[in-house]
């Protein structure tokens, strides 16, 4: 299993890159969001990878963080979601957005991804709701590309403008808040939904503020 690659970026296409690792070239498929954040040819890049092996095909998929890699693996476990659809969802929402959509049952956000219809989006939210808290609790372990030579200008710009991932401290606060609520006896699904909603309202909130806001959301109504 190839779980991580670091090497020199030699080529970038619309859906994959070629990484030279000590003389061996690896073709790695990435989401549009990930491609948009990578430097130009000649620079050093580092990605977590997932190797998919089928009877007549072997493909590597690359991700900037462990949490995004885990979402990819879970998304592909859903009926009707293959690697292409998974990358489309991650490219449209990002790892943080996928977690929030699933935790809050917001299947409409998932339909933003190209090629994902209503029924498939609903199946994603339903099938992964109970698994979302475990992935969200991983926090934001991000792999940053090592600085290399200045990027080379390319004729075709990346199709999607990069969006910054939440800081590790923010993701850690959300994971800690989720753990605290679980320790208080709330179900993983309810806790994840409340934390996701609280974080959506206050993206930079710390652990204590997230817990207070989530507890208000979880309080009995009426």
TrEMBL record:
Chain segments carrying region Domain I: 1-64
Family annotation (InterPro entries): DNA_helicase_Holl-junc_RuvA_I, NA-bd_OB-fold, RuvA, RuvA_2-like, RuvA_C, RuvA_C_sf
Protein's UniProt keywords contain Cytoplasm: yes
Domain of life of the organism encoding this protein: Bacteria
Residue numbers spanned by region Domain III: 165-222
Principal subcellular localization: cytoplasm
Flexible linker, as annotated region: 152-164
Keyword DNA repair (UniProt): yes
Localization: Cytoplasm
Domain DNA helicase Holliday junction RuvA type intervals: 1-62
GO-annotated molecular function: DNA helicase activity; hydrolase activity
Gene3D superfamilies per UniProt: 5' to 3' exonuclease, C-terminal subdomain, DNA helicase RuvA subunit, C-terminal domain, Nucleic acid-binding proteins
Biological role: The RuvA-RuvB-RuvC complex processes Holliday junction (HJ) DNA during genetic recombination and DNA repair, while the RuvA-RuvB complex plays an important role in the rescue of blocked DNA replication forks via replication fork reversal (RFR). RuvA specifically binds to HJ cruciform DNA, conferring on it an open structure. The RuvB hexamer acts as an ATP-dependent pump, pulling dsDNA into and through the RuvAB complex. HJ branch migration allows RuvC to scan DNA until it finds its consensus sequence, where it cleaves and resolves the cruciform DNA.
Sequence similarity: Belongs to the RuvA family.
Record remark on domains: Has three domains with a flexible linker between the domains II and III and assumes an 'L' shape. Domain III is highly mobile and contacts RuvB.
HAMAP family: DNA_HJ_migration_RuvA
Descriptive protein name: Holliday junction branch migration complex subunit RuvA
Biological classification of the source: Bacteria, Pseudomonadati, Pseudomonadota, Alphaproteobacteria, Rhodobacterales
């Amino acid at each position: 299993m190839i779980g991580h690659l670091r090497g020199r970026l030699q080529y970038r296409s619309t859906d994959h890159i070629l990484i030279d690792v000590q003389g061996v070239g690896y073709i790695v498929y990435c989401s549009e969001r990930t491609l948009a954040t990578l430097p130009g040819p000649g620079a050093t890049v580092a990605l977590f990878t997932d190797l998919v092996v089928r009877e007549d095909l072997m493909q590597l998929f690359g991700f900037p963080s462990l949490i995004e890699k885990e979402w990819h693996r879970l998304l592909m476990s859903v009926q009707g979601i293959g690697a292409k659809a998974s990358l489309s969802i991650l490219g449209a929402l990002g790892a943080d957005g996928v977690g929030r959509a699933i935790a809050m049952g917001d299947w409409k956000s998932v339909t933003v991804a190209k090629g994902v219809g209503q029924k498939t989006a609903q199946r994603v939210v339903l099938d992964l709701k109970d698994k979302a808290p475990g992935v969200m609790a991983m926090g934001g372990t991000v792999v940053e590309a090592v600085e290399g030579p200045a990027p080379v200008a390319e004729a075709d710009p990346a199709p999607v403008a990069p969006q910054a991932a939440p800081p590790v401290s923010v993701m850690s606060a959300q994971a800690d808040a989720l753990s605290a609520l679980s320790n208080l006896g709330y179900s993983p699904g309810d806790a994840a939904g409340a934390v996701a909603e609280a974080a959506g309202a206050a993206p930079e909130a710390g652990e204590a503020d997230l817990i207070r806001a989530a507890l208000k959301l979880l309080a009995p109504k009426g």
